[in-house]
Amino acid sequence: MKLSELSGRPGARKARKRIGRGIGSGTGKTGGRGGKGQTARSGVRIKGFEGGQMPLHRRLPKRGFKNVKFARKLNEVNLGKLQAAIDAGTLDAAARIDAAALVKAGVLRREKDGVRLLGGGEIKAKVTLAVFGASKSAVAAVEKVGGSVEILAPKRAASEQAA
Predict the structure, then answer these.
(1) Distance between CA 153 and CA 18 in Å, rounded?
(2) 3-class DSSP assignment, residue 138
(3) What is the dihedral of CA 73, 91, 83, 150, to 10 degrees?
(4) What pLDDT is recorded for position 161?
(5) Strand (E) positions, the chain?
(6) 3-class state of residue 115 by DSSP
(7) How far apart are CA 152 and CA 115, in angstroms?
(8) Over the stretch 49-78, which tens digit does the pLDDT of each residue have?
């Protein structure tokens, strides 16, 4: 094999399309840029412009709020993943399991603001967990096998729970 015999696989290299070379080419005249006016210009195009009528996105009311500044970024861990780590021997079921232990075991990459325990999967080992939050099904499953779940999140007031 010689260097001059090397070539790309069929279909790997696409030929450049020469636009704006007469109407017979099929891509002549406007060269794929449409008609005149604002749409023919580069850099300017109004998305959602309705000919001077108030656009739909401004006619509809503003709604909702996402609290990005104070929102907690939590790791979500399913019971099945915990059991898999215990079975693999990376997580000690006898010791207290918290975010630091999960990171050390390789279940989580980093601690973030805490861990939320979810009820996906099945747990067979008796474990003591210390997590920021947990779903009701997860707490029930852990307590069913004789374990315990300590919730580290501060208790919410009754007025906040109703909202």
Answers:
(1) 63
(2) helix
(3) -50
(4) 60
(5) 75-78, 96-97, 115-118, 128-131, 133-134, 148-151
(6) strand
(7) 10
(8) 888 899 999 999 999 998 888 989 999 999
Above 70 in pLDDT, residue 89? yes
pLDDT band at 122 (very low <50, low <70, confident <90, very high): very high
Q: What percent of the chain has pLDDT over 90?
A: 68
Can you tell me whether residue 56 is helix, strand or coil? helix
CA distance 117 to 139: 8
Quote the CA–CA distance of 112 and 116 in Å, as a whole number.
Answer: 11
Q: What are phi and psi of 132, to 5 degrees?
A: -65, -40
**Residue 50, C-beta contacts closer than 8 angstroms, at least 6 positions apart:** 56
Please report the pLDDT score of residue 156 as a whole number: 78
Reading the block at residue 109, the tokens are 């990459």
In the chain, the domains with their CATH numbers are: 20-64 (no CATH), 75-162 (3.100.10.10)
Which residue's structure tokens are 């580069």?
Answer: 42
* DSSP notation for 61-90: PP-----TTT----EEEEHHHHHHHHHHTS
The single-letter code of the amino acid at 89 is G
